[in-house]
Protein backbone atom coordinates (compact mmCIF):
# COMPACT_ATOMS: atom_id res chain seq x y z
CA UNK A 1 0.00 0.00 0.00
CA UNK A 2 1.19 3.50 -0.71
CA UNK A 3 1.59 5.69 2.35
CA UNK A 4 1.69 8.87 0.31
CA UNK A 5 0.57 9.75 -3.19
CA UNK A 6 1.27 13.18 -4.62
CA UNK A 7 -0.28 13.91 -8.02
CA UNK A 8 0.47 16.80 -10.35
CA UNK A 9 1.38 19.22 -7.61
CA UNK A 10 2.40 22.74 -8.56
CA UNK A 11 3.18 25.50 -6.08
CA UNK A 12 4.03 29.12 -6.65
CA UNK A 13 5.21 32.06 -4.57
CA UNK A 14 3.95 35.34 -6.04
CA UNK A 15 3.30 33.86 -9.48
CA UNK A 16 6.77 32.31 -9.64
CA UNK A 17 6.54 28.53 -9.78
CA UNK A 18 8.59 26.84 -7.07
CA UNK A 19 7.34 23.36 -7.87
CA UNK A 20 6.06 22.13 -11.18
CA UNK A 21 4.01 19.04 -11.75
CA UNK A 22 5.33 16.86 -8.98
CA UNK A 23 3.95 13.33 -8.86
CA UNK A 24 5.23 10.39 -6.87
CA UNK A 25 4.05 7.61 -4.58
CA UNK A 26 5.84 6.46 -1.47
CA UNK A 27 5.36 2.85 -0.33
CA UNK A 28 4.47 2.19 3.29
CA UNK A 29 7.42 1.36 5.53
CA UNK A 30 9.99 3.02 3.30
CA UNK A 31 12.59 5.62 4.14
CA UNK A 32 12.89 8.25 1.45
CA UNK A 33 15.64 10.82 1.13
CA UNK A 34 14.56 14.02 -0.61
CA UNK A 35 17.65 15.34 -2.33
CA UNK A 36 18.29 18.47 -4.34
CA UNK A 37 20.25 21.72 -4.37
CA UNK A 38 19.39 24.79 -2.27
CA UNK A 39 16.22 26.35 -3.56
CA UNK A 40 15.12 23.15 -5.30
CA UNK A 41 11.80 23.30 -3.51
CA UNK A 42 12.30 20.55 -0.93
CA UNK A 43 10.87 22.49 1.99
CA UNK A 44 8.16 23.86 -0.27
CA UNK A 45 7.24 20.30 -1.26
CA UNK A 46 6.84 19.16 2.35
CA UNK A 47 4.92 22.24 3.39
CA UNK A 48 2.51 21.95 0.49
CA UNK A 49 1.99 18.23 1.08
CA UNK A 50 1.03 19.16 4.65
CA UNK A 51 -1.20 22.00 3.38
CA UNK A 52 0.78 24.62 5.22
CA UNK A 53 1.11 26.44 1.88
CA UNK A 54 -1.58 26.99 -0.73
CA UNK A 55 -1.01 24.87 -3.83
CA UNK A 56 -1.81 25.95 -7.36
CA UNK A 57 -2.91 22.49 -8.36
CA UNK A 58 -2.51 18.87 -7.44
CA UNK A 59 -3.75 16.38 -4.87
CA UNK A 60 -2.25 14.63 -1.88
CA UNK A 61 -3.42 11.36 -0.42
CA UNK A 62 -2.16 9.81 2.78
CA UNK A 63 -3.04 6.14 3.00
CA UNK A 64 -5.59 6.68 0.24
CA UNK A 65 -7.44 9.38 2.14
CA UNK A 66 -7.26 13.17 1.94
CA UNK A 67 -4.79 14.71 4.37
CA UNK A 68 -7.47 16.49 6.38
CA UNK A 69 -8.76 13.24 7.82
CA UNK A 70 -5.28 11.90 8.57
CA UNK A 71 -3.83 14.58 10.82
CA UNK A 72 -3.35 12.21 13.72
CA UNK A 73 -0.93 9.99 11.86
CA UNK A 74 1.33 12.69 10.44
CA UNK A 75 4.53 13.81 12.13
CA UNK A 76 6.57 16.81 11.07
CA UNK A 77 9.91 18.36 11.96
CA UNK A 78 10.37 21.70 10.15
CA UNK A 79 13.72 22.85 8.76
CA UNK A 80 14.01 25.69 11.21
CA UNK A 81 11.12 25.77 13.61
CA UNK A 82 9.34 29.06 13.19
CA UNK A 83 8.23 29.08 16.81
CA UNK A 84 8.21 31.90 19.29
CA UNK A 85 11.46 31.05 21.06
CA UNK A 86 10.73 33.42 23.95
CA UNK A 87 7.39 31.80 24.68
CA UNK A 88 7.14 30.79 28.34
CA UNK A 89 7.39 27.05 27.85
CA UNK A 90 9.97 24.36 28.57
CA UNK A 91 11.31 21.38 26.66
CA UNK A 92 8.91 18.84 28.20
CA UNK A 93 5.97 21.11 27.41
CA UNK A 94 7.01 21.33 23.77
CA UNK A 95 7.23 17.56 23.51
CA UNK A 96 3.79 17.24 25.10
CA UNK A 97 2.41 19.43 22.34
CA UNK A 98 3.04 16.48 20.05
CA UNK A 99 0.26 14.72 21.99
CA UNK A 100 -2.33 17.46 21.72
CA UNK A 101 -4.55 15.87 19.13
CA UNK A 102 -4.41 12.58 20.99
CA UNK A 103 -5.41 14.24 24.25
CA UNK A 104 -8.47 15.75 22.59
CA UNK A 105 -10.19 19.05 23.07
CA UNK A 106 -11.02 20.41 26.52
CA UNK A 107 -8.81 17.82 28.26
CA UNK A 108 -5.48 18.01 30.02
CA UNK A 109 -2.49 15.72 29.49
CA UNK A 110 -2.71 12.58 31.62
CA UNK A 111 0.17 11.07 33.63
CA UNK A 112 0.60 8.49 30.91
CA UNK A 113 1.09 11.20 28.28
CA UNK A 114 3.67 12.95 30.47
CA UNK A 115 5.58 9.72 31.01
CA UNK A 116 5.60 9.10 27.27
CA UNK A 117 6.82 12.64 26.59
CA UNK A 118 9.64 12.16 29.10
CA UNK A 119 10.56 8.91 27.41
CA UNK A 120 10.77 10.71 24.06
CA UNK A 121 13.05 13.35 25.56
CA UNK A 122 15.23 10.59 26.89
CA UNK A 123 15.45 8.97 23.46
CA UNK A 124 17.08 12.10 22.08
CA UNK A 125 19.28 12.48 25.16
CA UNK A 126 17.48 15.54 26.51
CA UNK A 127 16.00 14.17 29.74
CA UNK A 128 18.16 16.49 31.85
CA UNK A 129 16.76 19.56 30.10
CA UNK A 130 13.07 18.81 30.54
CA UNK A 131 12.31 21.94 32.54
CA UNK A 132 14.64 24.27 30.66
CA UNK A 133 12.99 27.22 28.88
CA UNK A 134 13.46 26.53 25.18
CA UNK A 135 15.38 29.70 24.31
CA UNK A 136 17.99 28.61 26.84
CA UNK A 137 18.89 25.53 24.81
CA UNK A 138 21.60 25.38 22.15
CA UNK A 139 20.58 25.12 18.50
CA UNK A 140 21.29 21.40 18.37
CA UNK A 141 19.41 20.82 21.62
CA UNK A 142 16.43 22.72 20.28
CA UNK A 143 16.48 20.56 17.17
CA UNK A 144 16.47 17.47 19.38
CA UNK A 145 13.48 18.72 21.35
CA UNK A 146 11.52 19.09 18.12
CA UNK A 147 12.54 15.59 17.11
CA UNK A 148 11.25 14.36 20.44
CA UNK A 149 7.98 16.17 19.79
CA UNK A 150 7.67 14.39 16.44
CA UNK A 151 8.43 11.10 18.16
CA UNK A 152 5.79 11.84 20.80
CA UNK A 153 3.22 12.19 18.02
CA UNK A 154 3.63 8.47 17.39
CA UNK A 155 2.73 9.10 13.77
CA UNK A 156 2.56 6.60 10.93
CA UNK A 157 4.22 8.86 8.41
CA UNK A 158 6.97 11.35 9.20
CA UNK A 159 8.20 14.39 7.29
CA UNK A 160 11.55 15.74 8.39
CA UNK A 161 13.19 18.77 6.86
CA UNK A 162 16.95 18.51 7.40
CA UNK A 163 16.77 16.93 10.85
CA UNK A 164 20.55 16.59 10.92
CA UNK A 165 21.32 20.24 10.31
CA UNK A 166 23.30 21.56 13.25
CA UNK A 167 23.40 18.37 15.32
CA UNK A 168 26.63 16.62 16.28
CA UNK A 169 27.71 13.25 14.91
CA UNK A 170 26.53 11.21 17.89
CA UNK A 171 23.11 12.85 17.81
CA UNK A 172 22.88 12.15 14.09
CA UNK A 173 23.61 8.49 14.82
CA UNK A 174 20.97 8.42 17.54
CA UNK A 175 18.41 10.02 15.23
CA UNK A 176 19.09 7.65 12.38
CA UNK A 177 18.84 4.76 14.83
CA UNK A 178 15.44 6.07 15.90
CA UNK A 179 14.30 6.39 12.28
CA UNK A 180 15.40 2.86 11.50
CA UNK A 181 13.35 1.63 14.44
CA UNK A 182 10.38 3.50 13.06
CA UNK A 183 10.92 1.87 9.71
CA UNK A 184 11.03 -1.55 11.37
CA UNK A 185 7.73 -0.74 13.02
CA UNK A 186 6.32 -0.13 9.54
CA UNK A 187 6.34 3.65 9.74
CA UNK A 188 7.06 5.68 6.63
CA UNK A 189 9.71 8.39 6.78
CA UNK A 190 10.56 11.18 4.33
CA UNK A 191 13.70 13.16 5.08
CA UNK A 192 15.15 16.19 3.34
CA UNK A 193 18.84 15.46 3.31
CA UNK A 194 21.95 17.24 2.06
CA UNK A 195 24.83 14.90 2.79
CA UNK A 196 25.16 12.84 -0.38
CA UNK A 197 27.76 10.59 1.26
CA UNK A 198 25.28 9.02 3.63
CA UNK A 199 22.34 8.65 1.25
CA UNK A 200 23.12 5.02 0.44
CA UNK A 201 23.36 4.12 4.14
CA UNK A 202 20.29 5.93 5.32
CA UNK A 203 17.60 5.62 2.67
CA UNK A 204 16.01 2.85 0.69
CA UNK A 205 14.23 5.35 -1.59
CA UNK A 206 15.36 8.64 -3.05
CA UNK A 207 13.48 11.56 -4.55
CA UNK A 208 15.75 13.79 -6.61
CA UNK A 209 14.16 17.16 -6.93
CA UNK A 210 14.88 20.37 -8.69
CA UNK A 211 11.64 22.28 -9.12
CA UNK A 212 10.27 19.14 -10.68
CA UNK A 213 11.15 15.53 -9.80
CA UNK A 214 14.28 14.32 -11.62
CA UNK A 215 13.78 10.77 -10.42
CA UNK A 216 12.05 8.80 -7.72
CA UNK A 217 12.55 5.18 -6.72
CA UNK A 218 14.79 2.74 -4.93
CA UNK A 219 18.12 4.22 -3.98
CA UNK A 220 20.32 1.89 -6.00
CA UNK A 221 18.39 2.64 -9.19
CA UNK A 222 17.83 6.36 -8.74
CA UNK A 223 20.89 7.62 -6.90
CA UNK A 224 23.14 7.66 -9.95
CA UNK A 225 25.70 10.16 -11.11
CA UNK A 226 23.69 10.95 -14.22
CA UNK A 227 20.61 11.74 -12.18
CA UNK A 228 22.59 13.74 -9.67
CA UNK A 229 24.18 15.79 -12.38
CA UNK A 230 20.77 16.53 -13.77
CA UNK A 231 19.47 17.57 -10.37
CA UNK A 232 22.47 19.64 -9.38
CA UNK A 233 23.19 20.97 -12.85
CA UNK A 234 26.60 19.30 -13.19
CA UNK A 235 27.93 20.91 -10.04
CA UNK A 236 28.84 17.82 -8.10
CA UNK A 237 32.39 17.34 -9.32
CA UNK A 238 33.65 18.07 -5.80
CA UNK A 239 32.14 14.82 -4.59
CA UNK A 240 34.93 12.59 -3.40
CA UNK A 241 33.02 9.46 -2.58
CA UNK A 242 30.04 9.79 -4.77
CA UNK A 243 27.21 7.38 -5.26
CA UNK A 244 27.81 3.86 -6.47
CA UNK A 245 27.33 4.73 -10.09
CA UNK A 246 30.02 7.37 -9.83
CA UNK A 247 32.64 4.72 -9.18
CA UNK A 248 31.40 2.64 -12.08
CA UNK A 249 31.54 5.48 -14.55
CA UNK A 250 35.08 6.60 -13.76
CA UNK B 1 -22.23 48.02 50.33
CA UNK B 2 -19.93 50.95 50.67
CA UNK B 3 -18.83 53.31 47.98
CA UNK B 4 -15.17 52.35 48.39
CA UNK B 5 -15.99 48.67 48.11
CA UNK B 6 -17.72 49.04 44.74
CA UNK B 7 -14.98 51.17 43.26
CA UNK B 8 -12.28 48.80 44.44
CA UNK B 9 -14.22 45.79 43.20
CA UNK B 10 -14.72 47.42 39.80
CA UNK B 11 -11.03 48.28 39.57
CA UNK B 12 -9.97 44.78 40.57
CA UNK B 13 -12.35 43.20 38.05
CA UNK B 14 -10.92 45.42 35.31
CA UNK B 15 -7.39 44.46 36.39
CA UNK B 16 -8.17 40.75 36.50
CA UNK B 17 -10.13 40.59 33.24
CA UNK B 18 -7.77 42.78 31.23
CA UNK B 19 -4.69 41.29 32.91
CA UNK B 20 -5.45 37.71 31.91
CA UNK B 21 -6.81 38.49 28.44
CA UNK B 22 -4.10 41.02 27.69
CA UNK B 23 -1.35 38.57 28.65
CA UNK B 24 -2.41 36.47 25.66
CA UNK B 25 -2.04 39.52 23.40
CA UNK B 26 1.40 40.30 24.78
CA UNK B 27 2.51 36.73 24.16
CA UNK B 28 1.25 36.94 20.58
CA UNK B 29 3.15 40.19 20.12
CA UNK B 30 -0.13 41.89 19.39
CA UNK B 31 -0.13 44.54 22.09
CA UNK B 32 -0.78 47.25 19.51
CA UNK B 33 -4.05 45.65 18.52
CA UNK B 34 -5.25 46.22 22.10
CA UNK B 35 -4.67 49.90 21.52
CA UNK B 36 -6.59 49.75 18.25
CA UNK B 37 -9.54 47.77 19.57
CA UNK B 38 -9.84 49.84 22.73
CA UNK B 39 -10.49 52.84 20.49
CA UNK B 40 -12.53 51.31 17.69
CA UNK B 41 -15.06 49.78 20.11
CA UNK B 42 -16.30 53.35 20.44
CA UNK B 43 -17.80 52.86 16.99
CA UNK B 44 -19.51 49.71 18.21
CA UNK B 45 -21.01 51.52 21.17
CA UNK B 46 -22.26 54.37 19.01
CA UNK B 47 -23.56 51.86 16.50
CA UNK B 48 -25.43 50.00 19.24
CA UNK B 49 -26.94 53.31 20.34
CA UNK B 50 -28.15 54.04 16.81
CA UNK B 51 -29.85 50.68 16.63
CA UNK B 52 -31.39 50.51 20.11
CA UNK B 53 -31.60 54.22 21.04
CA UNK B 54 -30.28 53.40 24.48
CA UNK B 55 -27.00 52.79 26.26
CA UNK B 56 -27.82 49.46 27.86
CA UNK B 57 -25.18 46.84 28.53
CA UNK B 58 -25.94 43.92 26.26
CA UNK B 59 -26.31 45.75 22.90
CA UNK B 60 -23.17 47.70 23.76
CA UNK B 61 -21.26 44.46 24.35
CA UNK B 62 -22.54 43.03 21.08
CA UNK B 63 -21.72 46.19 19.12
CA UNK B 64 -18.25 46.35 20.63
CA UNK B 65 -17.69 42.68 19.96
CA UNK B 66 -18.61 43.09 16.31
CA UNK B 67 -16.44 46.15 15.76
CA UNK B 68 -13.56 44.55 17.67
CA UNK B 69 -13.65 41.56 15.35
CA UNK B 70 -14.03 43.83 12.31
CA UNK B 71 -10.92 45.69 13.44
CA UNK B 72 -9.01 42.43 13.60
CA UNK B 73 -10.41 41.29 10.23
CA UNK B 74 -9.51 44.56 8.48
CA UNK B 75 -6.00 44.53 9.96
CA UNK B 76 -5.57 40.94 8.81
CA UNK B 77 -6.87 41.79 5.32
CA UNK B 78 -4.55 44.75 4.86
CA UNK B 79 -1.63 42.79 6.26
CA UNK B 80 -2.14 39.80 3.99
CA UNK B 81 -2.34 42.08 0.97
CA UNK B 82 1.14 43.38 1.71
CA UNK B 83 0.74 46.30 4.15
CA UNK B 84 3.10 46.16 7.15
CA UNK B 85 1.18 45.00 10.19
CA UNK B 86 1.86 48.10 12.33
CA UNK B 87 0.79 50.34 9.46
CA UNK B 88 -2.30 48.18 8.95
CA UNK B 89 -3.23 48.61 12.61
CA UNK B 90 -2.69 52.36 12.36
CA UNK B 91 -4.90 52.70 9.30
CA UNK B 92 -7.81 50.64 10.64
CA UNK B 93 -7.57 52.08 14.14
CA UNK B 94 -7.70 55.73 13.10
CA UNK B 95 -10.40 55.36 10.46
CA UNK B 96 -12.83 53.35 12.59
CA UNK B 97 -12.21 55.51 15.66
CA UNK B 98 -12.69 58.70 13.62
CA UNK B 99 -15.94 57.31 12.24
CA UNK B 100 -17.08 56.70 15.82
CA UNK B 101 -16.16 60.25 16.83
CA UNK B 102 -18.07 61.71 13.87
CA UNK B 103 -21.15 59.62 14.66
CA UNK B 104 -21.02 60.59 18.33
CA UNK B 105 -21.36 64.24 17.40
CA UNK B 106 -24.75 63.44 15.85
CA UNK B 107 -26.14 62.08 19.08
CA UNK B 108 -24.16 64.25 21.46
CA UNK B 109 -27.16 66.16 22.79
CA UNK B 110 -29.39 63.15 23.32
CA UNK B 111 -27.33 61.21 25.83
CA UNK B 112 -24.32 61.48 28.02
CA UNK B 113 -21.87 59.92 25.60
CA UNK B 114 -18.86 61.99 24.74
CA UNK B 115 -15.34 61.36 23.59
CA UNK B 116 -13.84 62.67 26.81
CA UNK B 117 -15.85 60.16 28.82
CA UNK B 118 -15.08 57.33 26.42
CA UNK B 119 -11.36 57.93 26.58
CA UNK B 120 -10.95 58.69 30.26
CA UNK B 121 -13.96 57.00 31.88
CA UNK B 122 -14.94 57.83 35.42
CA UNK B 123 -14.72 55.10 37.94
CA UNK B 124 -15.91 57.41 40.69
CA UNK B 125 -19.44 57.36 39.20
CA UNK B 126 -19.64 53.58 38.99
CA UNK B 127 -21.47 53.00 42.33
CA UNK B 128 -24.38 55.25 41.28
CA UNK B 129 -25.07 53.58 37.98
CA UNK B 130 -26.82 50.52 39.39
CA UNK B 131 -28.59 47.60 37.83
CA UNK B 132 -32.19 47.99 38.91
CA UNK B 133 -34.84 45.39 38.20
CA UNK B 134 -38.42 45.96 39.41
CA UNK B 135 -37.21 48.70 41.68
CA UNK B 136 -34.68 46.50 43.44
CA UNK B 137 -31.06 47.56 43.08
CA UNK B 138 -28.52 44.81 42.49
CA UNK B 139 -25.33 46.86 42.62
CA UNK B 140 -23.40 48.72 39.92
CA UNK B 141 -23.99 47.76 36.28
CA UNK B 142 -20.25 47.94 35.61
CA UNK B 143 -19.61 45.18 38.16
CA UNK B 144 -22.18 42.92 36.51
CA UNK B 145 -20.81 43.57 33.03
CA UNK B 146 -17.23 42.98 34.13
CA UNK B 147 -18.20 39.87 36.05
CA UNK B 148 -20.01 38.45 33.03
CA UNK B 149 -17.12 39.18 30.66
CA UNK B 150 -14.60 37.76 33.12
CA UNK B 151 -16.65 34.57 33.35
CA UNK B 152 -16.94 34.27 29.56
CA UNK B 153 -13.20 34.85 29.09
CA UNK B 154 -12.22 32.37 31.80
CA UNK B 155 -14.51 29.73 30.33
CA UNK B 156 -13.12 30.26 26.82
CA UNK B 157 -9.51 30.21 28.01
CA UNK B 158 -10.11 27.07 30.05
CA UNK B 159 -11.88 25.29 27.19
CA UNK B 160 -9.35 26.23 24.53
CA UNK B 161 -6.27 26.38 26.77
CA UNK B 162 -4.20 23.92 24.73
CA UNK B 163 -5.30 25.38 21.41
CA UNK B 164 -4.52 28.95 22.47
CA UNK B 165 -1.13 27.94 23.80
CA UNK B 166 -0.26 25.87 20.74
CA UNK B 167 -1.36 28.44 18.17
CA UNK B 168 0.54 31.18 19.96
CA UNK B 169 3.74 29.23 20.33
CA UNK B 170 3.88 27.38 17.02
CA UNK B 171 1.07 28.29 14.60
CA UNK B 172 2.47 26.07 11.86
CA UNK B 173 2.45 22.92 13.96
CA UNK B 174 -0.93 23.92 15.35
CA UNK B 175 -2.31 24.10 11.80
CA UNK B 176 -0.76 20.75 11.02
CA UNK B 177 -2.43 18.96 13.91
CA UNK B 178 -5.75 20.57 13.03
CA UNK B 179 -6.06 23.47 15.48
CA UNK B 180 -8.30 26.13 13.87
CA UNK B 181 -5.66 28.83 14.25
CA UNK B 182 -7.70 31.58 12.62
CA UNK B 183 -10.77 30.88 14.75
CA UNK B 184 -8.62 31.02 17.89
CA UNK B 185 -7.26 34.36 16.69
CA UNK B 186 -10.72 35.86 16.29
CA UNK B 187 -11.88 34.31 19.54
CA UNK B 188 -9.11 36.18 21.28
CA UNK B 189 -10.02 39.39 19.47
CA UNK B 190 -13.59 38.93 20.71
CA UNK B 191 -12.38 38.48 24.28
CA UNK B 192 -10.29 41.64 24.01
CA UNK B 193 -13.26 43.59 22.61
CA UNK B 194 -15.57 42.39 25.37
CA UNK B 195 -13.02 43.17 28.08
CA UNK B 196 -12.50 46.59 26.61
CA UNK B 197 -16.12 47.59 26.44
CA UNK B 198 -16.88 46.25 29.90
CA UNK B 199 -13.97 48.25 31.33
CA UNK B 200 -14.69 51.28 29.18
CA UNK B 201 -17.13 52.98 31.48
CA UNK B 202 -14.96 52.75 34.54
CA UNK B 203 -11.38 53.26 33.42
CA UNK B 204 -11.87 54.64 29.88
CA UNK B 205 -10.31 53.46 26.64
CA UNK B 206 -6.80 54.77 27.14
CA UNK B 207 -6.41 53.21 30.56
CA UNK B 208 -7.86 49.93 29.34
CA UNK B 209 -4.78 49.68 27.15
CA UNK B 210 -2.54 49.97 30.20
CA UNK B 211 -4.47 47.22 31.98
CA UNK B 212 -4.38 45.01 28.88
CA UNK B 213 -0.69 45.34 28.16
CA UNK B 214 1.32 46.23 31.23
CA UNK B 215 0.37 43.39 33.63
CA UNK B 216 1.07 40.82 30.89
CA UNK B 217 4.37 42.45 30.00
CA UNK B 218 5.29 42.51 33.69
CA UNK B 219 4.43 38.86 34.26
CA UNK B 220 6.47 38.01 31.16
CA UNK B 221 9.55 39.26 32.99
CA UNK B 222 8.82 37.12 36.02
CA UNK B 223 8.11 33.58 34.83
CA UNK B 224 8.96 30.91 32.29
CA UNK B 225 5.61 29.15 32.55
CA UNK B 226 2.58 29.91 30.42
CA UNK B 227 0.01 29.05 33.09
CA UNK B 228 1.87 30.96 35.82
CA UNK B 229 2.15 33.93 33.47
CA UNK B 230 -1.62 34.14 32.99
CA UNK B 231 -2.28 33.91 36.74
CA UNK B 232 0.47 36.40 37.61
CA UNK B 233 -0.81 38.82 35.03
CA UNK B 234 -4.28 38.72 36.56
CA UNK B 235 -2.86 39.16 40.05
CA UNK B 236 -0.75 42.13 38.95
CA UNK B 237 -3.88 43.63 37.39
CA UNK B 238 -5.71 43.33 40.72
CA UNK B 239 -2.78 44.66 42.74
CA UNK B 240 -2.43 47.61 40.36
CA UNK B 241 -6.09 48.48 40.84
CA UNK B 242 -5.77 48.29 44.63
CA UNK B 243 -2.49 50.17 44.82
CA UNK B 244 -3.78 52.75 42.34
CA UNK B 245 -6.85 53.34 44.45
CA UNK B 246 -4.59 53.87 47.45
CA UNK B 247 -2.57 56.49 45.53
CA UNK B 248 -5.73 58.23 44.40
CA UNK B 249 -7.15 58.52 47.92
CA UNK B 250 -3.81 59.55 49.39
CA UNK B 251 -3.14 62.37 46.93
CA UNK B 252 -6.69 63.04 45.80
CA UNK B 253 -6.01 62.42 42.10
CA UNK B 254 -7.78 60.56 39.27
CA UNK B 255 -8.54 56.98 40.34
CA UNK B 256 -8.27 55.42 36.89
CA UNK B 257 -5.09 57.36 36.20
CA UNK B 258 -3.50 56.16 39.43
CA UNK B 259 -4.39 52.58 38.61
CA UNK B 260 -2.60 52.87 35.28
CA UNK B 261 0.39 54.44 36.98
CA UNK B 262 0.40 51.54 39.42
CA UNK B 263 0.70 49.04 36.54
CA UNK B 264 3.77 51.02 35.50
CA UNK B 265 5.20 50.81 39.00
CA UNK B 266 4.89 47.02 38.97
CA UNK B 267 6.46 46.87 35.54
CA UNK B 268 9.46 48.95 36.57
CA UNK B 269 9.92 46.84 39.69
CA UNK B 270 9.91 43.66 37.60
CA UNK B 271 12.16 45.26 35.02
CA UNK B 272 14.74 46.18 37.65
CA UNK B 273 14.50 43.26 40.04
CA UNK B 274 12.89 40.43 38.07
CA UNK B 275 14.67 37.06 38.27
CA UNK B 276 14.70 36.52 34.51
CA UNK B 277 15.57 39.74 32.76
CA UNK B 278 15.96 41.97 35.81
CA UNK B 279 18.50 44.68 35.10
CA UNK B 280 19.79 44.65 38.66
CA UNK B 281 20.08 40.87 38.77
CA UNK B 282 21.88 40.94 35.43
CA UNK B 283 24.32 43.50 36.79
CA UNK B 284 25.05 41.31 39.80
CA UNK B 285 25.38 38.20 37.65
CA UNK B 286 27.41 40.13 35.09
CA UNK B 287 30.02 41.17 37.65
CA UNK B 288 30.29 37.69 39.14
CA UNK B 289 30.63 36.40 35.59
CA UNK B 290 33.54 38.72 34.96
CA UNK B 291 35.18 37.70 38.20
CA UNK B 292 35.09 34.04 37.21
CA UNK B 293 36.66 34.84 33.89
CA UNK B 294 39.38 36.85 35.56
CA UNK B 295 40.12 34.22 38.15
CA UNK B 296 40.37 31.55 35.50
CA UNK B 297 43.02 33.39 33.52
N1 LIG C 1 8.21 32.53 1.42
C1 LIG C 1 8.70 32.55 0.17
N2 LIG C 1 8.39 33.56 -0.67
C2 LIG C 1 8.87 33.59 -1.94
N3 LIG C 1 9.65 32.65 -2.44
C3 LIG C 1 10.01 31.60 -1.67
C4 LIG C 1 9.56 31.51 -0.31
N4 LIG C 1 10.04 30.36 0.23
C5 LIG C 1 10.79 29.81 -0.74
N5 LIG C 1 10.78 30.52 -1.88
C6 LIG C 1 11.45 30.18 -3.14
O1 LIG C 1 11.01 28.91 -3.55
C7 LIG C 1 12.10 28.12 -3.99
C8 LIG C 1 12.15 26.82 -3.21
O2 LIG C 1 12.45 27.09 -1.83
P1 LIG C 1 12.59 25.95 -0.73
O3 LIG C 1 12.73 26.60 0.57
O4 LIG C 1 11.48 24.99 -0.91
O5 LIG C 1 13.97 25.28 -1.15
P2 LIG C 1 14.75 24.09 -0.47
O6 LIG C 1 14.90 23.04 -1.49
O7 LIG C 1 14.10 23.69 0.80
O8 LIG C 1 16.15 24.78 -0.19
P3 LIG C 1 17.20 24.55 1.01
O9 LIG C 1 18.04 23.39 0.64
O10 LIG C 1 18.01 25.81 0.98
O11 LIG C 1 16.44 24.39 2.28
C9 LIG C 1 13.34 28.98 -3.85
O12 LIG C 1 13.67 29.49 -5.11
C10 LIG C 1 12.93 30.09 -2.94
O13 LIG C 1 13.58 31.27 -3.29
MG1 LIG D 1 14.62 23.75 2.78
Note down, in words, how this protein is organized.
- Chain A is α/β, with parallel strands linked by helices.
- Chain A has a domain at 2-82 and 156-248: P-loop containing nucleotide triphosphate hydrolases (Rossmann fold), CATH 3.40.50.300.
- Chain A is 34% helix and 26% strand.
- Chain A is built from 10 helices and 10 strands.
- In chain A, the strands form 2 sheets. In chain A, strands 6-7-8-3-9-10 form a 6-stranded mixed β-sheet, with helices on both faces.
- In chain A, helix 2 (91-97) crosses helix 4 (111-123), helix 2 packs parallel to helix 5 (139-152) and helix 4 crosses helix 5 (139-152).
- Chain B is mainly alpha-helical and 297 residues long.
- Chain B has a single domain (3-129, 136-296), classed as ABC transporter involved in vitamin B12 uptake, BtuC.
- Helices cover 80% and strands 3% of the residues of chain B.
- Chain B is built from 12 helices and 2 strands.
- Chain B has a two-stranded antiparallel sheet.
- In chain B, strand 1 (130-133) and strand 2 form a beta hairpin.
- Chain B starts with a helix and ends with a helix.
- In chain B, 49% of the residues are buried.
- Residues 288-297 of chain B have low confidence and may be disordered.
- The chains are: A alpha/beta (250), B mainly alpha (297).
- The A-B interface holds A 50-52, 71-72, 74, 76, 78, 81-84, 87-90, 93-94, 97, 100-101, 103, 105-106, 108, 133, 149 and B 27, 29, 159-160, 162-163, 165-166, 168-170, 172-173, 175-179, 220, 223-226, 228-229.
- The structure holds adenosine-5'-triphosphate and magnesium ion (MG).
- Magnesium ion binds at residues 42-43, 79, 161 of chain A.
- Chain A: InterPro entries: AAA+_ATPase, ABC_transporter-like_ATP-bd, ABC_transporter-like_CS, Metal_Ion_Import_ABC, P-loop_NTPase.
- Chain A: Keywords: ATP-binding, Nucleotide-binding, Transport.
CATH architecture of the domain at 2-82 and 156-248 in chain A: 3-Layer(aba) Sandwich
Number of strands of chain B: 2
- Cα shape of chain B: globular
How far from one another are the termini of chain B? 69 Å
Q: Approximately what portion of the residues of chain A adopt beta-strand conformation?
A: 25-35%
* CATH homologous superfamily classification of chain B: ABC transporter involved in vitamin B12 uptake, BtuC
CATH class descriptor name of the domain at 2-82 and 156-248 in chain A: Alpha Beta
Low-confidence parts of chain B lasting 5 or more residues at pLDDT below 50? 288-297
The first-level CATH class of chain B is given as Mainly Alpha
Beta strand count of chain A: 10
CATH topology of the domain at 2-82 and 156-248 in chain A: Rossmann fold
The interface involving the most residues is between: A-B, 27 and 25 residues
Order of helices and strands of chain A: EEEHEEEHHHHEHEHEEHHH
Number of domains of chain B: 1
Work out the oligomeric state of the chains in this entry: heterodimer
CATH architecture of chain B: Orthogonal Bundle
Mean pLDDT of chain A: 86
- Mean pLDDT over the full residue set of chain B: 85
Amino acid sequence: MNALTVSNMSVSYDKQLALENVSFSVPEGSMTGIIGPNGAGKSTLIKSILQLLPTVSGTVEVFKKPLRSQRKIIGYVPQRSEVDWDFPTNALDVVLMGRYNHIGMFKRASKKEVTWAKHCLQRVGMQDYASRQISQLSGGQQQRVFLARAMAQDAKIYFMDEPFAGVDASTEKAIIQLMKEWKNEGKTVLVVHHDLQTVNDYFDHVLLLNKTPIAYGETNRVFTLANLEEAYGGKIAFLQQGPKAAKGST
Amino acid sequence: MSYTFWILLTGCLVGLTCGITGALLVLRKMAMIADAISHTVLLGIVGAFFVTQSLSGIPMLIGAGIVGILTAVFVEMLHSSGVQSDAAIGIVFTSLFALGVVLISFIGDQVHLDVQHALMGEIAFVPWNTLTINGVSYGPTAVWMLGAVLAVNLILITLFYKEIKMSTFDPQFATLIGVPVMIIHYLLMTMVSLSTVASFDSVGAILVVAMLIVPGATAYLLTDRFFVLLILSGVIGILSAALGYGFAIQWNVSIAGSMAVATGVFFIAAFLFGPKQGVVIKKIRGTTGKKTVQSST
